[in-house]
Every structure is written in structure tokens, then in C-alpha cells.
Amino acid sequence: MAVGFSDDGNWMYSGSEDGTVKIWDLRTPGLQREYESRAAVNTVALHPNQTMMNFEPLHRLQAHKGYILNCLLSPEYCDPHRYLATASSDHTIKIWNVVT
Fold first, then answer.
1. Cα angle at 4 between 7 and 52, to 5 degrees?
2. In this predicted structure, which of 6-15, 37-46, 87-96 has the lowest mean pLDDT?
3. What is the C-alpha to C-alpha distance for residues 54 and 27, in angstroms, rounded to an integer?
4. 3-state secondary structure of 85
5. Beta strands in 1-100 (DSSP E)
């Protein structure tokens, strides 16, 4: 289980062992959005620009033999190089250049 909050405190997001990611607007009652994954979600993180309006996958990473356990986007101060690191259940870590 994983949970996080937006900087302004208006949004909460959660990941669960059942493979769901849920987004809650704390200013209104009830669940705002729910997404399903094929594997447990043990880590959640909000994009650095703090927007939650469009949460649709742009690319599907299919380079690991197992499911992804964790991922992390490099800080903005690494510009012009931005990287995504993924750790998999197949005991590998991969670094992705998100610019190209």
C-alpha cells in the first residue's frame, strides 16, 4: 500500500496490492478517479508539476521480464537530461531517457 498528497493538500493518491491507483479530491466527498494495473502498486508519486487532470499512459514500457516494482523520475535540475529509472521483479534496473 502506498499513499501521497499534493503540495497544496487538495489531492490524495493511493496505490494498493490489488493493482489499483486511486485519486481523491479532498475538497469533495468520494473517489475522484481510479486506474487499474496488472500488478500490485507499492509506490506512488506525483509528477513534479503537481497536475492531476490528465492521467493517461503515454507509453507502455515492455523491457522487463517481470513486473515493475518501483520507478522514479529524475529531478528537474538534471536538465537537459531527464531519466526514468525502473526496478523490476526480474532483479533488473533500467534507466530510460525520457527526452528521446
1. 65
2. 37-46
3. 19
4. strand
5. 2-5, 11-15, 20-25, 31-36, 68-73, 83-88, 93-97
pLDDT (tens digit per residue) in 18-57 = 888 888 888 888 888 888 887 788 777 776 665 554 455 5
| Residues 23, 78: Cα–Cα separation, whole Å | 28
For 35, the 3-state DSSP assignment is: strand
C-alpha to C-alpha distance for 37 and 41, rounded to whole angstroms: 8
Calpha distance 89→73 (Å, rounded): 19
Band of the pLDDT at 99, cuts 50, 70, 90?
confident
Please give the Cα distance from 83 to 70 (Å, whole number).
14
